Amino acid sequence: GYHHARRPHSGARLRHLRHLVGKSENHSPFSLYQETQESLPRSAVIGSAGKKLVVQDNHKPVFTNCSQYAPSVKEEEPSGTYVFTVKAYDKDPPDEGGTISYTFVSARGERMKFEIDNVTGVIKTKHIFDRDEPAREKEVYLTVRATDNGHPQLDDACTFKVTIEDINDNSPVFDKVNYRESVPQDLRPGSEVMRISATDMDDGNNSIVLYKLEPKQPQDRGYMRIDEKTGIIFLNRTID
């Protein structure tokens, strides 16, 4: 017959399926029970005296290295660029709950900028990223769910950040089209003549601007020098 039982101290309900034909090693009859809570073994053979003879676990998949995930992809890479591979582990045999399927967890209607292979966990881009204005795409957070094929199906989720790396795709731009300054003939060498400034829309080292003077006429070479970091131009020698 069918009836329900409760495991002591657990709150888990057990459903009596049927009496098996035969006896255990100590010749006592035994029964098969099905548990309905995910956190407990999927099935167990229980002796008539309450002794557990066989246990078959239903393990959940686990992202064991989730906290270490730190993938990145360069901006302006084409759609379909490889990013990263996620991996979850399940202790069950493949045909008994150990086969894992990967999917993204996203809001309804959200336009995903990445795609994931349901079997391998390989993540690729499906969008061309741009760190510069106006997009300013510097990082994207992804949540991946790993679901097994057990009964019931169990799952685990992993959230991590994908960093969009900058490339040197912008040229420096001066803050003025032309710079003009009058220099007195008696100005002493080493005196400041003017300051120039340029900015670069890239990030990090790609945004660092260095300055260099290139006189149009060979005879003008040596009169001025420029601080390559600040853009300050100094008189280098006396003007004839």
Question: Could you give a short description of this structure?
Answer:
This protein has strands at 4-6, 13-23, 29-35, 43-47, 52-56, 72-74, 82-85, 100-104, 114-116, 122-125, 139-148, 155-165, 173-174, 192-195, 198-199, 224-226, 232-235. By secondary structure, it is mainly beta. It folds into 3 domains: 4-56; 66-165, Cadherins (Immunoglobulin-like); 168-240, Cadherins (Immunoglobulin-like).
What would the keywords be for this entry?
4-stranded mixed beta sheet; 36% strand; disordered N terminus; 17 strands; Cadherin-like_sf; Immunoglobulin-like; transmembrane helix; 3 domains; 5-stranded antiparallel beta sheet; rod-shaped; 240 residues; mainly beta; calcium ion binding; signal
Write the layout of secondary structure elements.
Elements lengths: L3 E3 L6 E11 L5 E7 L7 E5 L4 E5 L15 E3 L7 E4 L14 E5 L9 E3 L5 E4 L13 E10 L6 E11 L7 E2 L17 E4 L2 E2 L24 E3 L5 E4 L5
Parallel strand pairs: 6-12
Antiparallel strand pairs: 1-2, 2-3, 3-4, 4-5, 7-10, 8-11, 9-10, 11-12, 13-15, 14-17, 16-17
Give your account of this protein's structure.
It is a single-pass membrane protein. It is found in: Membrane. This protein is mainly beta and 240 residues long. The protein has three domains: 53 residues; 100 residues, Cadherins (Immunoglobulin-like), CATH 2.60.40; 73 residues, Immunoglobulin-like. The protein is built from no helices and 17 strands. A hairpin with a 6-residue loop joins β1 and β2. It is rod-shaped and about 95 Å long. The N and C termini lie far apart (115 Å).
